[in-house]
């Protein structure tokens, strides 16, 4: 508390007035009497201040507390149940490798037993040497400040450590308005009285260690570090429990002027002076010896500065590719109702909620996925190969990679969209609608047909060109009807079943099959397995779905993530799980958050999924349980996986504008699409298809390393042969 002597007019006019009125003034009392009178006045004011501190809470601030209301209940939320903004940590699947953090304030609460005892002692010595003696308000300090300030000496405060905690809490109280939080830091008599009263109430309810712990977790130590955990990490890259005496003294000394004195961007000399002040105060308190203080004072200032990344664009440069996974994680978080009713509330929870997130990102699989993507197209290529890897039965995402740098750095003028981008090229969203995946969509037609009761041996004599019931125009028209053709008539035409029709990717067979089951069922099957229509043209066709005969040939846009997860549903015997980027989430109290649990539902029957899997073994060079495969479009995949049971499908869009492969085993599913995301007229060509197949297969091989070999069950005879 400060007293400021009132002054009016200029110095000249004041002196003139004094001379003019000198004769009228009574004789001045002797100096000793004046000092005694002033001392009595200050003692009286100190007593008043202390008395005010114990007045009923309802008399403060012009508000009344209802009779019978517990005083503790009348305290602001931030004091009765504190929760200052906390940093959220996001880790890879090992729970140790940091991906990034999210925060408004760099702060993480830690219990007192995880703070070095020397740090606790240093803060008390630097800020409130009588902390363990007073009950929230220190009348002796109030008196000392009144005397010093009234004499025009250096301005002194009388805030105890408890009062400082009150002030910091109110400044961070989310239940208060922005103006109220600002007012909590303005130096006024009313604010001081309020702080005193709240401090007294806190001391009645909380122990000294509890108050000290709360203070250490909320205080600002400069350089953007809020709380002792952030401070020890920022200045010395260590946990608070590991702080030495000179380190603790330096940090404690910063509390008076945290920004001006911090040794990173402020005054290093002032920081060392404050360290010395703290050491001297600790000696006076008897918490360290003079010899210990001398040794600590002689220690050079050795900082080991570290600042936590903030958001996805701050992912460590060594693993910049993790940014695409991180971006998907943030999109996912924004859809989870557990974190708030609105997108704003959920984003705020991420930045202030203090969660610990262990993601499903597997750094080893991610490294392989990126290497395989770069092996097809380098960073300097306009074309890209986004890859996604998913775990069947949980939807958990192991990797999301593409030959791009995730970031906002400018690109060269000759190619302004790459290699740096924050567009979600792997998972879609944010304006990215996806890419055509060609014949991989034949899976949805096969599932719909099986579900409708048609067995795998459903036979059709597939012609080189099929005239359909849907209208057509241009080169794809036969008498006004759409008439698709087979890419390799000599290899594809003839009697086909779902086994060899899928293995050889026979267009006319699957268009015929789609006509038999109905395109509506096929599109619905794709949607049930998570295919999302983000592109405007696809949304238009979905609205008039019965006219979408070309859907089975994959002219709708999708993403590697959606496609991998759809095939993962087949691998999981029809159990669809929403794509999930996390393994666990815990709140600041260590309690698990339900959002981390897989969200799964049985979308197709097990027998239908098993039958579709049996046919999906044909494209990759593996025989079906009934020995019905006779040729595939990606037979090298089986060898890359060492003969392990595998299934999958290739896909080429019209004019080979994209080339796709999606593969799966019971333990993993992966997909990659070669494309020029910025120019659909830049056809990647069929020459890249084997490289895409290999890239996905090798990524799968890394994912399966160390896992037992699992086979696929055989479908029932009814689903396979219709008998």
UniProtKB/TrEMBL annotation:
Residues covered by the Penicillin-binding protein transpeptidase domain: 390-690
Keywords: Carboxypeptidase, Glycosyltransferase, Hydrolase, Membrane, Multifunctional enzyme, Protease, Transferase, Transmembrane, Transmembrane helix
Gene3D superfamilies, per the entry: Biosynthetic peptidoglycan transglycosylase-like, DD-peptidase/beta-lactamase superfamily
Region annotation Disordered: where it falls in the sequence: 1-26
Domain Glycosyl transferase family: 98-282
Reactions catalysed: [GlcNAc-(1->4)-Mur2Ac(oyl-L-Ala-gamma-D-Glu-L-Lys-D-Ala-D-Ala)](n)-di-trans,octa-cis-undecaprenyl diphosphate + beta-D-GlcNAc-(1->4)-Mur2Ac(oyl-L-Ala-gamma-D-Glu-L-Lys-D-Ala-D-Ala)-di-trans,octa-cis-undecaprenyl diphosphate = [GlcNAc-(1->4)-Mur2Ac(oyl-L-Ala-gamma-D-Glu-L-Lys-D-Ala-D-Ala)](n+1)-di-trans,octa-cis-undecaprenyl diphosphate + di-trans,octa-cis-undecaprenyl diphosphate + H(+); Preferential cleavage: (Ac)2-L-Lys-D-Ala-|-D-Ala. Also transpeptidation of peptidyl-alanyl moieties that are N-acyl substituents of D-alanine
Any single Pfam family the record assigns to this protein: Transgly
Domain of life the protein comes from: Bacteria
Keyword hit for Oxidoreductase: no
InterPro entries linked to this entry: Beta-lactam/transpept-like, Glyco_trans_51, Glycosyltr_51/Transpeptidase, Lysozyme-like_dom_sf, PBP_transglycosylase, PCN-bd_Tpept
Residue stretches spanning the membrane: 39-60
Composition bias, Basic residues: 1-18
The keyword Protein biosynthesis appears for this protein: no
Matches recorded under PANTHER family: BINDING PROTEIN TRANSPEPTIDASE, PUTATIVE-RELATED, PEPTIDOGLYCAN GLYCOSYLTRANSFERASE
Protein known as: Transglycosylase domain-containing protein
Organism of derivation: Dactylosporangium roseum
């Amino acid at each position: 508390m400060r007293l400021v002597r009132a002054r009016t007019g200029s110095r000249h006019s004041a002196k003139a007035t004094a001379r003019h009125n000198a004769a009228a003034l009574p004789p001045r009392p002797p100096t000793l009497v004046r000092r005694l009178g002033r001392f009595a006045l200050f003692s009286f004011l100190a007593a008043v201040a202390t008395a005010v501190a114990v007045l009923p809470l309802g008399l403060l601030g012009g508000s009344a507390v209802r009779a019978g209301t517990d005083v503790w209940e009348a305290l602001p939320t931030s004091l009765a149940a504190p929760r200052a903004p906390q940093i959220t940590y996001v880790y890879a699947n090992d729970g140790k490798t940091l991906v990034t953090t999210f925060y408004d304030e760099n702060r993480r609460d830690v219990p007192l037993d995880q703070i070095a005892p020397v740090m606790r002692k240093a803060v008390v010595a630097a800020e409130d040497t009588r902390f363990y003696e007073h009950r929230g308000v220190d009348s002796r300090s109030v008196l000392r400040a009144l005397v010093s300030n009234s004499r025009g000496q250096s301005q002194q405060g009388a805030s105890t450590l408890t009062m400082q905690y009150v002030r910091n809490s109110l400044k961070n109280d989310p239940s208060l308005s922005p103006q109220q939080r600002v007012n909590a830091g303005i130096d006024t008599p009313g604010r001081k009285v309020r702080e005193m009263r709240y401090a007294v109430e806190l001391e009645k309810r909380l122990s000294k260690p509890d108050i000290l712990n709360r203070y250490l977790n909320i205080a600002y130590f400069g350089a953007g570090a809020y709380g002792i955990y952030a401070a020890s990490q920022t200045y010395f890259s260590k946990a608070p429990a590991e702080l030495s005496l000179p380190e603790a003294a330096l940090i404690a000394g910063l509390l008076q002027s945290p920004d001006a004195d911090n040794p990173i961007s402020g005054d290093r000399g002032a920081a060392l002076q404050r360290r010395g002040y703290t050491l001297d105060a600790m000696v006076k308190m008897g918490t360290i010896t003079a010899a210990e203080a001398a040794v600590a004072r002689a220690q050079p200032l050795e900082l080991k500065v570290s600042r936590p990344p903030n958001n996805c664009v701050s992912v460590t440069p060594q693993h910049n590719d993790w940014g695409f996974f991180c971006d998907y994680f943030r999109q996912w978080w924004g859809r989870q109702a557990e974190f708030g009713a609105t997108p704003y509330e959920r984003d705020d929870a991420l930045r202030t909620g203090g969660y610990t997130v262990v993601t499903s990102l597997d750094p080893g699989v991610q490294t392989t996925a990126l290497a395989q993507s770069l092996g097809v197209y380098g960073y300097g290529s306009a074309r890209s190969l986004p890859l996604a890897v998913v775990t069947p039965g949980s939807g958990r995402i192991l990797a999301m990679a593409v030959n791009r740098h995730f970031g906002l750095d400018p690109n060269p003028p000759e190619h302004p969209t790459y290699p740096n981008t924050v567009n979600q090229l792997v998972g879609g969203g944010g304006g990215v609608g996806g890419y055509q995946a060609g014949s991989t969509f034949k899976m949805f037609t096969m599932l719909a047909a099986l579900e409708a009761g048609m067995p795998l041996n459903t036979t059709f004599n597939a012609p080189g060109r099929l005239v359909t019931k849907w209208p057509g125009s241009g080169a794809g028209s036969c008498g006004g009807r759409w008439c698709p053709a087979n890419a390799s008539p000599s290899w594809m035409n003839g009697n086909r079943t779902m086994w060899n029709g899928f293995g050889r990717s026979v267009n006319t067979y699957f268009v015929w099959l789609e006509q038999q089951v109905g395109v509506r069922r096929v599109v619905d099957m794709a949607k049930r397995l998570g295919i999302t229509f983000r592109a405007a043209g696809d949304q238009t066709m979905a609205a008039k779905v019965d006219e979408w005969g070309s859907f089975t040939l994959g002219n709708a846009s999708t993403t590697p993530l959606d496609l991998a997860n759809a095939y993962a549903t087949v691998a999981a015997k029809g159990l669809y799980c929403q794509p999930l980027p996390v393994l666990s989430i815990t709140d600041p109290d260590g309690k698990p958050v339900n959002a981390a649990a897989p969200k799964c539902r049985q979308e197709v029957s097990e027998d239908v999924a098993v039958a579709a899997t049996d046919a999906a073994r044909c494209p990759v060079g593996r025989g079906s349980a009934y020995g019905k495969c006779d040729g595939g479009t990606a037979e090298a995949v089986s060898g890359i996986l060492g003969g392990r049971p595998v299934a999958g499908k290739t896909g080429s869009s019209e004019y080979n504008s994209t080339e796709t492969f999606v593969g799966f085993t019971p333990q993993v599913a992966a997909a990659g699409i070669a494309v020029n995301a910025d120019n659909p007229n830049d056809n990647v060509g069929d020459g890249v298809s084997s490289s895409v197949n290999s890239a996905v297969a090798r990524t799968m091989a890394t994912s399966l390393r160390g896992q037992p070999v699992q086979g696929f069950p055989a479908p029932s005879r009814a689903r396979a042969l219709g008998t």
